[in-house]
Each structure stands twice: as structure tokens, then as C-alpha cells.
Amino acid sequence: MKTITQILTEKLAAAFVECGYSAELGSVGTSDRPDLCQFQCNGAFGGAKLYHKAPRMIAQEVADKLSSDTDLAKVEVVGAGFININVSDAFLLGYVSGQLADKDLGIPQAEKPETIVLDYGGPNVAKPLHIGHLRSAVIGESLKRLAKATGRKTISDVHLGDWGLQIGLVIAELKERHPEWYCFSEGFDKEKFEGIPLTADELNEVYPFASKKSKEDDEFKAKAKAVTAELQKGEPAYIALWEEIIKVSVADIKKNYDKLNVSFDYWYGESNAEKFVPRLISTLTEQGLLHESEGAMVVDVAEEDDKVTIPPVIVKKSDDSNIYATTDLATIIQRMEEWKPDEIWYIVDSRQSLHFTQVFRCAKKAGLVPEGTKLEHLGFGTMNGADGKPYKTRDGGVMRLELLFDMVYDYAKGIVDKSTHSAEEDKADIARRIAVAAIKFGDLINHRAKDYIFDIDKFMAAEGKTGSFLLYTIARVNSILRKAELPEGFKADTIYSDSERDVLLKLALSGESYALAYREKAPNIICENAYQLASAFSKFYHDNHILTEEDENKRNSWLSVCSAVKTSLEKHLDILGIETVDLM
Ligand code: ARG
């Protein structure tokens, strides 16, 4: 379905052409002055340059051509040549009714639906999830839903960090603690291995312990490195143990993502890229791209017009170990071979931008991806505390995701417990949904590239740009709809008040915001539109006595508007990865 500004642009373009001007001039956007009009077209100014005529004259000719169009309630020339436009109520109602009947709810669909791989999450096995991983998960989940809603095919991959030194540290530590475990015995036989009694809690404790120890104890550090090397070479006992560690860790990681309503199609890890490394090295060697530098094997990726120095990407270190860039390059080979995507998006902290510049350039240079394949690093800023520094625990440690979630959950549960609306057995799930809405909306309302401050009171506030306000608005609509008999279909055929017209306009404009959010890969645009719609609804709700209205036509019309708001808000929130609640 076309967006409302697309329809208006077509009308204006036709009028420009009829007057003998270029169609391009007819571009219509939403109004910069919503107090004066709904839409505007500034094409007459471009026309003035092309046709050496006063912009006001051009604007007036075009406006005159449109005077008989009944879809338009007002086409007015103001100032030096702006065209201000209002649509007719009938047109607006017809457009919203069309959105509701559309199978995509009026969300503009891709013309050539691309296949997109989204790499987000990036948790590390054996290390607990921390808040750095939160943004990747929240933004990635939302971008995936947005891409899908606009007709694209998406493939999401968590890209587990499952192959690095952290595993070696954990195995080395477990060996010291449990030398009696079968996997540490001589003559290990996989057939006889029955697993290990390792819990997620112990694992979460082992890694930080081992990591600290390796910094103080060189001998231990050397052991951990040796274990890592043996593991990467395929030592059967370590591989078996590694599989057990992954099992425990992934179950724990999944539990955290589930709570947040975040999911992945693939749970591949860095280890899955391992088998593509030989091919990577041979491709780079054949093309003469790989050369030695200070004992390492590197590829030059600097370009002539670089404003800052882009150092060569290191593919092999002197000790022959693979590193982060090697893994990402090998993973590109795997993704191209398995999924042939048109685009790969990496939703990863902005501080990794040099790494991605190097990896992408190397991938293009070596032809690992065709010329037209887009590799995009969609970076994000940090979540800070009130002091403007990365959010920490009270004692200054890294904030675990679980802890942050529990804190918000407890806050929400405190509120839900006091409410008499919901049944006792539903309260835990309602509190979880409110917590998720607070965390996600609080994050996504900021442009992803920006840092923001985590402020639980602000995130949980019942008014303003918050998840709670949106959930509350939907719960309010639900309560109206429960008390009345909703007419079938969209029954609004007259607009009775300005506040109602405003709600309808916000509904009609949602298509533009989906399109823009997709173009900019910016879920904050969806958040903003959801907020605008919810606040227009609040005003409409306060201005009109929907349930007690005696005129049946009016009441039915308003109920239809309520139901349309609910449908649209739910869609916005769904794309943000936020689940709603019936009652609040
Ligand atoms: N595991 C990494 C980390 O915790 C993030 C991985 C991001 N994805 C990627 N393809 N490099 O920093």
C-alpha cells in the first residue's frame, strides 16, 4: 500500500506536470507547522530556479489545478511559495480504513525483497551476559522485526563467542578444581564420557575467577593458553568438555534472551567459522593480499582518501592463533555460502567500528562477497549511569544483564502487586512485560548511535516517552472496548472533533515512519511515532465521552477509532519487540 505522502506526491506531481513543470517538484512531506496544515510541498522554490519564475506564481498555478480535487480540503499558497495542504476528512477516513484492511497494515513493502543476515547479541560462552550485550539484543531484535514487517527475508545469527581464551581459562580452572573428572583422565574415550556436574551458577562464577587469576598468576595463564590451543586443534577430551560448557552456558543465555523476548534463527558460534579459515587463508594468499608484518600475517586495507589511518588487518598472529578479524572474515564466507544474503548487518558497539572497517574492506578486496552485497556495521552507543560513565554495579563492577533485569522487574512487580485489576497468577508475567517495555523503550527511543542514561524512575514513568505509557494506553483502550459493543469493521464515516482528526492523521502517518525507520535503520522513529499516536489518543479520550455518548453513530465511530489505535499501537510495539498487557 502507498503511504499517504506518496499519494499526495502523485497528485502534486501531476499538477506540476499539467502546468508545464517537472514532476520531481511535486514531493510532499508532513508539515513543519502542524498548527497551520497537515502536509506541505516546497517544490515551487526548486521550480523558480529551473524556470526563472517567482515561486509564488508557480505555487499558485499548481494550487489552482488542485482546487477541484475533493480529496483535498485545503491547498493554500503561503509566504514566498509554500503550498500548504489538508486532506478531506473522507479521504483521511478512507485511507485509515484501507490501512486496517491491508494485510500489512499499510506498512510499505520492499519492491525487491532483500535477504538480510543480522548479527546481533554476540554473547560469550562461559561469561555472563552484561549490559553491553543488552543493546545489541534489543536493537537487533527490533531491526529484524522491522525488516520482516517491510517484506524482507531475515536470518538472525547470535554469533556466540565460543572459541576464545575464555574457554581455555574455564577448562584450566575446572581442571584444578575437579582433577577427578573423567574428561581429565589419561586415555579419555568419548563413548564413556557421561558429562560433568556443572551448573550455570558455577560457570558464571568460574570465568571471572579464572580471568582474575590469570592476571596474577603467569603459570596459570600459560596453562589456559595451552588448553585453548589444544582445544582449537581438536583435542577430544577438551572438545567434549567444551561441548558440555556450551550446553550449560547456552541454556543460561537463552533463558535471559527469552525473558527479553529476543530470539535467533541460528545459534552459530565463532567455532563454526573455524572450518572456513583454511579457505580464507588460501584465497588471501592466491590473490597476493597476505603479507608478513612484524611476525604476523596481515592484509593492507588503507585507501587513498582515508582521513584517519586504517591499519592493516591482522589475519594470523605470530603464534599462529586466529583472532577476532579472522573469525569474522571466515564467518562471511560461511554466510555467503549458506544463505547468499544481499546484506549483512552487524549490530555491535560503535567502539568496534575500526574492526568492521578493516574486515569489510578486506572482504571486498578478496571478493569474499560480490560487489553489490552490503556489509553494514550498525553501531550503538553505551548505556551510562547518572555519572555519564558506562553503567556499573554499586561496587563499580560490570553490570550483569540478569541483575539489571531483576532490578527493573522488582520495580514493576511492586507496582503490579498493588493493583487490583489483575489476577494473582498473572502478576509475574505482567510485571515481566512491563519491565521489558521499560528497558526496551528506554533504550530504543534514543537514536542507536547515541549514548543514554539508564534511569529506572524515568523508564518506568506512567507519562511521557516510556514503555509504561504505551502499555497503559493500550490497556486503557482495552478497557473501553471491553465495556462497549464494538461494531464490526471500521465504522467511522464522519470526524466529530479535532482531537479525533489528529488521531486519524497519526494513524495515517504510521506508514511513513516505518519506511523512514527502515531507511535509516532507526527504531527510535517507530518509538516516536508510537508515542505521538498514544498521546493524540489520550487527548481524544479526555475530550470525548466515548462510552456515555448517546448518538449511536458517533459512539460507534469513536469505538472504531479506539480499535484502530489499539491495532496500530500493538503493531508498533511488536516491531520494537515489546509485548503488551491486557490490563494495567
Ligand atoms: N562477542 C563479541 C563481544 O562480546 C561481540 C561479537 C559481535 N559480532 C561480530 N560478528 N563480531 O564483544
Describe how the helices and strands are arranged.
Layout: H1 4-18, E1 28-30, E2 39-41, H2 43-51, H3 55-65, E3 72-78, E4 82-87, H4 89-101, E5 115-119, H5 131-149, E6 153-157, H6 165-177, H7 200-216, H8 218-233, H9 236-259, H10 277-286, E7 290-293, E8 296-299, E9 313-316, H11 324-339, E10 343-346, H12 353-365, E11 374-377, E12 383-384, H13 401-418, H14 427-444, E13 452-453, H15 456-460, H16 467-483, H17 498-508, H18 510-520, H19 524-543, H20 552-576
Parallel strand pairs: 5-6, 5-10, 10-11, 12-13
Antiparallel strand pairs: 1-2, 2-4, 3-4, 7-8, 8-9
Helix pairs in contact: 1-3, 2-3, 4-17, 6-7, 6-8, 7-8, 8-9, 11-12, 13-14, 16-19, 16-20, 17-19, 17-20, 18-19, 19-20
Bound molecules: arginine.
Residues 119, 122, 124, 159, 161, 328, 346, 348 line the site of arginine.
Oligomeric nature of the chains: single chain
The strand line-up of the biggest sheet is 1-2-4-3
Quick one: overall form?
Answer: globular
Radius of gyration over all CA atoms, rounded: 29 Å
In short:
With 584 residues, this protein is an alpha/beta fold. It has 20 helices and 13 strands. It has helices at residues 4-18, 43-51, 55-65, 89-101, 131-149, 165-177, 200-216, 218-233, 236-259, 277-286, 324-339, 353-365, 401-418, 427-444, 456-460, 467-483, 498-508, 510-520, 524-543, 552-576, and strands spanning 28-30, 39-41, 72-78, 82-87, 115-119, 153-157, 290-293, 296-299, 313-316, 343-346, 374-377, 383-384, 452-453.
